Amino acid sequence: MQSKGKCIYCGKLFSGSGLSRHLATHLKEEPVADRKRSYHLVVDAKPYFLHLLMDGDAEMEELDSFLRAIWLECCGHLSKFSTARWGQEIKMATKCRRAFDKGTELWYAYDFGSTTELTIRCVDAYPTATKEGIRLLSRNEPLDIKCDHCKEKPAEELCTVHYGEDEVFFCEACAEQHMEECEDAEYAMMPVVNSPRMGVCGYTGGQIDLERDQIEA
Asked: How far apart are CA 9 and CA 147, in angstroms?
């Protein structure tokens, strides 16, 4: 399933790879700050992605908190950054400028039971400051997931006990019918949200960018 994202600067829609090139044209125009650097990061969990600008002096703990808030937090699970899946762990107090350089790719895991894994790649660094610590530059638009039952309406809920079967995603009307037929539906039905954590553990959505997360504010 292909995904696209809007540029925060101009609102134009691009595919993931095209977006990196496009954002570079805007980031080169950011105000220059002496002895400061900010890092363009791409967080990937195909087909989901985030483009972030992170201040070099911000700590990895801040990135951890951001990822939890926009994509992951459900039950306060543990998480970590490392150089690879089984690589050296990067401490949460590490400054962004010490963890990243152009081309650096890190691995991130949230929850060591039902794990959600992400890769984080540094596209480039710019001589500018990011006052908010981390700025969301773009995020994939909600995926076009249709109801598996009627094949027409957008899916709003999924049944976690039917993963791997023909009917997992349901529109509102078909979800009501499924709940009458599935004996596990009372605990197994979960909302469709714009996150790689969708349908896992107790995850029901994030706290940042609610419109693209498909959550009513």
From this structure: 33
Question: Strand, coil or helix: what is 128?
Answer: coil
> Is 119 in the same domain as 160?
no
Total Cβ atoms within 10 A of residue 166? 7
Write down the residue that tokens 């900010």 correspond to. Answer: 38
3-state secondary structure of 172: helix
Read off the tokens for 16: 């993931």
Nearest of 92, 86, 90, 116 to residue 104 by alpha carbon? 90
Beta-ladder partners of 67: none
Number of domains in the chain: 2
Q: What is the pLDDT of residues 37-77, one digit of tens each?
A: 999 999 999 999 999 999 999 999 999 999 999 999 999 99
* Model confidence at 217: pLDDT above 50: no
How many CA atoms are closer than 13 Å to the CA of 209, on its beta-carbon side? 23
What letter does residue 60 receive in the DSSP assignment? H
